[in-house]
Amino acid sequence: MEKLNLIWSACSNNGGWRVLEESIEKILCDILRNREKFLQNFFDKVLKATKISQDEIKTAKVDIEKHNIDLVIETCNQLIPIELKVFAEDKDKQCYRYLQNARKINKNVPARLYYLTIDKKTRQPSENSLNGEKILENDLNAVGDNEGVVLISYEDEIMNWIKDCLQDLKNVGEKNFCYQLELFEDIIKEHLTKK
Length: 195
What we know:
The protein is an alpha/beta fold.
């Protein structure tokens, strides 16, 4: 997590949005790999439309740029792709292709692609990227067994997740990791939210 200081410098100087997007992928991956509790909390607060067992959490692998997908959580039963969109445009049939990858790997589990944007109300996948796929609510009860794209945002889900992680860390007195998460929160507030 010490990389956050370098990332902050690269993003706030002239590193541009591509550096920001790639850096956020790495930061999220590092955080999710760091603690099982953070990963469980990520499913509870961010990936609410995916059902996952405690055994899957314990064996989950978190990677970046796997199957050309920005962030991937892979368990023994499912592939959970997360596409981070800061400012980049969708590629040709991008959401559709990523869902196809998940469908090949998932075992009796609906395939869902999480599409992470600054603001899910104003930024959604293009029709070409969806290629007929549906946009679903981020609620397990609402989506049932439907497959499709679930919109999530830095402003809502990610910020709430970070606040919960920070509270957990403060409760156990882990100041160093708290500082790093607070820095990540600052990056998001500065660059990725309207607040």
